[in-house]
Structures
1.
Amino acid sequence: MTLWTCYPKCNVAEPSQDQDKAPRLSERIETYRKEAEFLVSQGGEQPRFEFKRSASLSRENFDDRCDFIKLLQGIANAEIPGERCIVIGADPKEKKFYPVSNLAEFDPAKVSQVLSAYLEPTPRFEVFNVTTDAGSALVLIVLDANQPRPIIVTKQAQTQDGKPRLEVGDIWVKKNTDLVRATSADLSLMYDARIEKEAEDRARKRLNHLLEISPTLRAPQIPAPRAPDFSLLVGPKNDLRSFAKELIASDDLRRFKMLLETARESVVDGWDGTRGNAPVGDVTLLTSKLTTFFRDMFFPSLQAVVELGLLVIKYAGDDEWLSSVIDVLMEAFDATRGQNWLKSGYMLQQPESIRWWKPGFDIYTGIRAVAAYAVLRDKLKFLDSVIHRTVCPISIDDSQLDKTPVLFWPLHFLEFSPDWYKDGRSTFLWKERVAAAWGEYFGTATKFTDASAQLELLLEFNSFVGTNALGNPKLKTWLDLNVKDTSYTYFADLYAQDLRATVPMAERVYDALSSPDPRFPTYLAIDTRMFDQFFAITQPSQRLEIYGKFLHDLKAWQTQVMFQQFRRFPFMFSWDGRLRELVDGHIKRLAAPK
């Protein structure tokens, strides 16, 4: 068994000279190998796996060579969370393996040489020469989760009769099962990281402009503690971060709240001031003013408030600090509900105007980012500041809908394209806003989506209790009396990736339910009172039996959704350890005679 690795910084990698002493495959690659075997044997597909019965990089097989370059480019450019794999030597449609006879062509140095001749920059990848359990040789190419996108064709390739196969400037992207040319929307997502750097430069220029027109905004030049001002919100991020770290280190809550109040003037009160400054009836000028306000005042301030929340978590500030941040965000969310000018017929027809749901969507995304970061850093106590919050969802007609937990989905609209959620809500949030605004705190898309998956399991468990899935009479009575205007129905974002990422949170919930103390931790419960009603008279063993049903039903739900709604083959995942024991126990009870 041979392992080959290649990255753009290391264009030559040699296979082991002693195959008998070749290193064992890492657990990660062994998992990919087993999953590939499973998918082929079942005739299934996964977005992260691409199967080829055969492939060639030789000049003699020019068409295959071009097809391979185009395929790898498309997968590297694709919006797929996590690593993605190309398996050569397998055909899931026929449920068969075809031993690869041209392994030498897939030496990583040769692969890199071919790719770098046609693509710029070179995709990041690893090559593994593996075998199936039955001994059939396969080539497994694993593409890194973080690619230097967009990857562009830089050299033309054409057949001897002049038929073009690759055109200079082509940017191919894999979408579902098709290779398509990148659209402007695709390119916009790819350039988010670069745009964020440019945004920093714009922030500096914007600050300089503000200082020129209003010298009072200029920071004091004396060593005395700086008073919070608006320039911290709209200026370079490093200034805000340095100021916030100083406040946290000195436990200066007063100045922290002063800074939040400064931000509140933009994200809550700023809408009224902007509308009031526009002449009555001049909708063109109003559109321009609202758009400018959103770009230069509202969103920079919102981004700063969320950043303050992330910094409080990062540097373990006091709970009250984060609660103050969430208070402002919740007030800002409610303030977006009354912006009826954004819903006017004229505004809706102007492509450059702000969509009526955009401010609320950005606020919701910021709140989710804060919660996901608390999970990522395993500082779950900070969830106590946000998980209990409920809001009335925003809708285009301002209808009075039942309240819902703010971490669910408090946006009642379908203005996005029908397939916006096909890769999962968390992936959409990362691409749409989190990566560019707060991506540095998470590092990679995978870290964000994995942390979000843990949060999703927790929210789904709260929904399981809040909707009284087991028909508990005592809980029903309590719900009817106390939260009849609140909906706990939730469509979890756990259909686009396997449940492996949820395990740390699943284990944390297990610990809470197995404790002799029947009280569910407040930082894990949307409303601890309904958990008290649900579990008050049960023993730890009974609570765990209920939890086993939840875990079993969650996996069954995911399988059903993937099959019926997304036409995808289910993930090869099963609960392990003590979680597996709970699920197996539930299955046995289902099979037992009544």
2.
Amino acid sequence: MANKHESIYEHLSSITGLKFKAHLKGTDIQFKDLYKMHNLTSGIEDYLVLIEGSKSFRFTNLDGFIDEMIFLVKDLIGELNNEFRELNRRQENDAIVDEVAMFERHEYIGYTGERLLKLLNVLREKRKNQ
């Protein structure tokens, strides 16, 4: 799976001119598939990116790619925030709690959230410099 992710990243990097591989590490964003589509009536080409976890986005140019990646990252951060709130609720309300599992999940959320925030900042900076 990692080889396919790497191959898709290389194609995306070639299409967009962006180098963001280091910023993807630790974000849990795994590219699943990449499709190039050509509208025969309008002549417009666009791309469809499938992400592990049933997520996808379409773009036609660099600005569209950056905007869609920002939306994806914000969505993933929102999911982590929801999971964090749910873990805290369970920790407060459940009679029996696996403290080690809770700690590990909190660590995962914190690390992944931090990496996603860094990627979000990089993408916002690239959009601002366009």
3.
Amino acid sequence: MDANGNITAQTEMFGRRFRLISYLDPDVAVGVQGTADTGYTCGVVRMSSGLDPANTIFTGFPVPPASGTWTYLSIVWDRDQTYALGSNGTNAILTKLKKNTFAGSPLQCYTVTSPWFVLALMPDPPPPVVPQYTNLLLDCSESNTSQGNPILWFTRNGGDNQTWRATTVGPGLP
């Protein structure tokens, strides 16, 4: 972790509360939208908007592969840890976890320039050896930083809208 509380390695996310902040704008975080009845999706939350900041806090957990030694990442919504960041094919959604597991969609961080990284959606089940990249990265749709803009899984394009940092959030802080 650096002096500003930015996580600099995937393993530093394990068991730690954090926000995913966009390279496009330090006021833009990944946030949870929707309800348990309608389903949760992820979208832009402008931290200055005054909306509930707890919807932008996540916790990371290790996800060991079925075989091999590489450990993947599961990003769980801190407000309700029965939901993890996942996919319905295109949209970044929160998927309901099975009881007593953290096996949401397996994810992998790849450092661009510390503390900035891309977050890749891995195949499920994940391979025993991590590939350099998968095709789908967490993406601020069309580089639009407006409140509520969708956060998607999109083909890697090298854009700033696919670059993130994880900033730690202390216990009990919104």
